[in-house]
Structures are given as structure tokens and as C-alpha cells.
Amino acid sequence: MKLNLENSTLKQNDIYARDYQKKIKDIHQRLHSADHSAGTTWADYPENYDTKEFSKVQKLAKQIKSNSDALLVVGIGGSYLGAKAGIDMLVTKKTDVEIIFAGINFDYTDLAQKLDYLKDKDVTVNIVSKSGTTVEILSTLNIVERFMKNKYKNDYKSRMIFTTDKIKGYLRQRAIAEGIETLTVPDDMGGRYSVLSSVGMLPFVCAGLNAKQIMAGAYDAYKALCAETIEENPAYQYAVYRHLINKKLGKKVELFASFSPRMASFGAWLQQLFAESEGKDGKGLFVTPLTFSTDLHSVGQFIQQGTPVVAETFINVEKPLKDTNLSNIALDCPIKFLDGKSMSEINSAAFNGTLQAHKDAKVPIAIFSIDEINEYNFGYLVYFFELACGASGYLLGVNPFNQPGVEQYKSYMKELLKN
Amino acid sequence: MKLNLENSTLKQNDIYARDYQKKIKDIHQRLHSADHSAGTTWADYPENYDTKEFSKVQKLAKQIKSNSDALLVVGIGGSYLGAKAGIDMLVTKKTDVEIIFAGINFDYTDLAQKLDYLKDKDVTVNIVSKSGTTVEILSTLNIVERFMKNKYKNDYKSRMIFTTDKIKGYLRQRAIAEGIETLTVPDDMGGRYSVLSSVGMLPFVCAGLNAKQIMAGAYDAYKALCAETIEENPAYQYAVYRHLINKKLGKKVELFASFSPRMASFGAWLQQLFAESEGKDGKGLFVTPLTFSTDLHSVGQFIQQGTPVVAETFINVEKPLKDTNLSNIALDCPIKFLDGKSMSEINSAAFNGTLQAHKDAKVPIAIFSIDEINEYNFGYLVYFFELACGASGYLLGVNPFNQPGVEQYKSYMKELLKN
Question: What pTM was computed for the model?
Fold first, then answer.
């Protein structure tokens, strides 16, 4: 993966400033502390993950492939976005087991459509909640359980898997009492940092993805990003850069953009990763995913000429999976100059044209390039951004591994429902 | 539709201030001028739309229903987002004609998947570009035409419809020369204000939606929002409110949020409407759509406790299409208190809990409520936001009906491709 900080205002000297060197060195040690209780289990996870759990995922996936057309994953937030990011990036054709996500809201119209779609299919259900208390998940479980019971009678529990805490919580207790199969979310690993655990891996392996390649990418990122100096560590360069575009340039919004629509859900994963890690104590960049050129036709005008509050972070995919050439374009057609060009050339020119236009508009730009979309690069990107986000949060002076603000709407909601 | 400006800082007095009254009166006259050359054809469109064109849409849709399984709509930006918003909101079951959108990027992997899906289906293609010069659309047309020619041999042109300018442009000229069926985008109506024209109506009618009900909603909004005073016109109240949250409260980001996932694409339409209308001369709010409770588990933390730059605008749907009750919840389950409650009650409590939590955090909130999702309310919302956006843009002192900044990446792109 290549990192390129394209911006007209920030100098390398700013990013490599002595003050940041010192802070980053300290942050590096906090992130890589042997004590993970701050929530840093993800930091050496590519080296120290539980291989027995990993084998269990493979075993369960094999069973699901043998008896199911679909895996219904019931998760929200960190129990959903990473899995969805991987599936949308990496799966491009019909697979033996289709992955369907539910539990992401309280809208029964949405859930009923999904259950209707599944009514004549064989289904395994994966309930994902570390705490076992998430209201969306338990509500959806209640409805999905009715559906499964109706479909499979008393056998239905053999088609349920709970992915939850090792010991604690309602889901774990129920699984023990009723003999329901389980997977484990590691200790001290928040939802938004959990995609490489069983949370993401069960859907990935069921969808036919190569889990070992994902972990190989994450491992190589872990090894490549082990330096404690800014110069040698692109994840820290990016963390300092993000800090500076906010603090020094006054930017308020970071757009995660890609010219590959397959990256859209990865952008949504990044949105949670950064927004939930950083958005506290009145701090943080508002982050949002975009897909270009689609969204150049909606927010492109604003980026070019609107309130100058945005920065752009691109994930550039150099080689698409499929390509074709335009041909036989009529002489009077406005795109005659594209005759014989490939769509990937055109997409690449759209990317480079956008860079030039947005540089003219003085938008700070960071670019991450991968050669192609594959499992290895997915794992690499995940680890890269987890590390960058941890460092970026600590630079802001917040705790990147808690989310106290998420609880507030839930308490009001519970009050309203208890009355 | 009900409007409710929930905010702890702005007073009605600020919104009804004499200075704004004068400005709004002037803006009202500009928007409703008999001369539409500024780009205001949409403003009296619900009363003055071309009924002959409307009948032609009905006729073509009838023909498509009789010979096609799918309508492939090739459009981008304003030629796509409004149609997609309506389809995603209003269509909840399998329809005779499935609507597939293409031309929204230069990614052939994406297009190839769609064409593969269509290979054994009967297809009509609708190419949508007012100017007839959009590079995404003409590139996609080149590939789609090959697909159609291969499928239908020399007959394929009878399965093509160009929606374009009345007189000008490559698509119109080709249609005349080759006898291809056409629909017309009205004069002085920019893409983002064109959803109620044939641009949206052909896909809507093909998907079995009631176009007359859509226009009835738009007409009633047009009539209900004809007052030139802020007190009597909720669209102008909202326009002034938006202006003040930016100017007086310093907010930079407006989140269009809904607890109904069916509203997600409507949010994307709003994003283009406002971002492209207002984002010029260094002005405007950055606007982005969110779906709750999904996104409360990603950006909820930021909204609650992050940099205080966001305001929220909710589109609240009071009654969902489908509902069910939770039942037989175990005594030890953390959601035992929800036993017997309906999902819609829970969703509604999530909405009200969110309002309270975000009010505590001093987030300015505007709420628009519709009783249910239907064609009439879609038309009403479209007109309401078009009017609010036009007024809001003029209040900012920009031209809400041009988009000069969108051209810049395109010119660089063309330069790169011509070399």
C-alpha cells in the first residue's frame, strides 16, 4: 500500500515536527502495551489471535455451507460494518452461502422483506453482540427466532450461532443453557476494531473468502507498521496529518472517497471507526464515505467551491476486476475522443482530474493506493486504519476505545419504553 | 406534513426577524417569477407541467410493462438520485418491471454485474441526460448498446428511450436520425430539480407507482406553500432556520436522518439538492444522509460529544408499512421490558430518545413528519424541499440553479484522456 499526502498547505516538516515525534513515540508504546485493558487487543492481534477460535470458524462455516443457502447475520455497528465492508469489497459473484444482514434498525418492514426473501431457503442465523444487551439485536432475535422455529421446529437451535463475550452476558448464558453454538469476541476489543475476529470471519469464510489471506495482509501491515517514528510509519504520518488538517487548517469534515463502488461499505466502516473513536470531548473530524464519480455529481460542487471545511482521503484501486474498451463511437458523439479507451483508463483519468481540480480548490488530500481488491489488501487496510485511528485519537487527547456518548439515546429510549 | 424546529438556541423571533421577512418576500417573487430562465421551471411545475408528456410516459410505461422484465435507467446525479429516491421509498415488493440503475460511475465491474443479471431478462434501456454530453452516460451507453444489439439484433433500438433536451444535444439528434423514442427534460429545470419530470416519472410508472398521486402531493405542497411570509410558509421557515444555524450558530454540517431505511435514498437526493445548490462562493452547509438507528451506532458518538458542528434534520415516518409485536421474551433477557411492544413503538421510542439525547447535546434539530410513506407524501416532500432549497440558496446570496464547480474535474479529465 502506498501513502501519498497531497496537499498544498501542509509541509512534511509540519508532520515530522519534533513535538509530534515525541507524542507518537509515547502513543506507540501505549498502543503496543502488553496490557490490552485499554482496548488494544487489536494492536497485536494479527500475531496473537486465537488459532483455535479460527479453526472453529472454519469448521462452522463448512457446516453452514453444507446445509444453508444463506447466513443471516444479526449485528449492528461494529458487529456489522466490518463484515459488510469485507463482503461488499471482496464478493463479486453468487456464492454458495449468501450473506444477509439484519438487526441494523427497528424497522420491521425492512426485516420482513429479508425474512420473506429467506422463506424458501435454508438458513443459519448468526447473532452478534459482545455485550449481549444490544436492543436492536435482541429485538431482531425475538422475531428471527419465531421465523426459525416455524421453519425448523425444535431443530432450529442447531442453526443458530451466537458470537458474543467469552463469559458474560445473556447470549453466552443462553447458549450454555440451551446448547447453542458460540463464537467469541476477544476481550478488550471494541466492536469497531473487531472485524478480524469471528465477528467478521464467520461471514467471510461462509461467503467463500480466504481468511488466511485476510490475516496475512493484516499481519504484514502489523509488521510493516511497527516503527515508532513518524518517518518510518505511514499510519502515524496519516494520524499526524489528520490532526493537522483539523488543528492547523481548520477542516471539520473528512471525506473517505473511492472511485470503486466496491469500497463504499469500507468507507462506512471507516466512518464508524473514526467517528466513534474520536468524536468526544468536543473534538474530532466529521467523517463520511463517498463513492466517485457518482457523488461528484452530488457533492462535487460543494467540495470544489463550497464552505472550505472538507479534506479528502482517497482509497485508490489501481486495477479493477473487470474492464472493457469503448468502441465504434460515432464521429459526432461528444465522447468520440474516448474511442478505443478502456473504462479503467477513463476511471483513472476521472480520479486524476478530480485530484487536480480539488488541489486547485486547496482541499487537503491523502491517497492510499492498493494494486487491486483482494483479501490480502483488505486485511492490510483494516490494520492500517485501526492503527492510524488509535494514534489519531490519542493525539486528540481522547480515549479512542470507549464510546460513552452512544449510551445516551439508549437510556432515554428505555425510559420511554418502560413507562 | 408537519414542521417542527427543535432547538435550544434559536428563537422564533430570530427566524421571523424583519430583515428575513423582507428578503424572503423578494426571494418568493424571484422563485415564482413567470420568467423561468433562472432555472425555476420546477416552481410552478405541479400546476403547469406538460400533460401530453405525462401521457407519453404512461404510454411508454405500458409498452415496457408488456415487453420487459427490467428497465435499465442510465443516468447520474440529478438524472438518477430522484428516481432512485422514489423507487427505494415507494416500492416494497417485486414489481412487473424491475428498475436497475447504471451509468453512475466508470467502474466496469459494477456495470458487468448488472448486465450479467439482465442477460436472460427482457430489457428496455432509458438513457437520461439533459445535455447529452455526460461522459458517464455516453460511455455506459456505448457498452449497453453493444449488450442490447447482441441481445435483440437490429430490433434493439425499439427498446431504447432517450430522456433529454427538447431540441439540443447529441441524444436528441441521434434519436431524430435513428427513430429512437424520446422523452423530454423541461427547459430551465436543472437535474436536481427534475425528479417530477419524465426523468423520474418513467421509472416510477414502470415500477407500478401512481404518478397522479405523486403529482397530487406536489400540487398540494405548491398550493400550501404559496405564501410569501415566513409565518405562513414552513418551507421558508426551514430556509431561514438553515441560514441561521450556519450563520448564527456556526454549524457546518447538516445530517438528513430518518429512522426508516426506506428514506435513505431520499436523503441522498437531498444531499445533491442542497450541496449542489448552495456549495459555491465558499458557502453552504455540508449535507449528508444518515439512517438511524443504524448510524447511531457509527456517528452517534460524534453527534453526541464530538466537535459541535452538526445540525440534524429528521424525516419522521409515523406509521410503518409493516409491524409486529415482540413476544415470549425470557425473564432474564435484557429486553424483557419490551415484551408485547411493537417494533414501531420501539422505533418511535428510539427516535424520541435520540431527540432528547441530541437536544441535551445542543444539536439544532428540525423535524418533518409524514403520516406514512406513499406517493402523495413523496411528491409533497419533493416540492417542499425544492422550494426550501431555492429560498435557502438565495438567502446565502448564491445562485441555487447553477453548478459551475462540477465542470472542473471534467475538464482536467478530458485533458488527461485527450493526450
Answer: 0.97
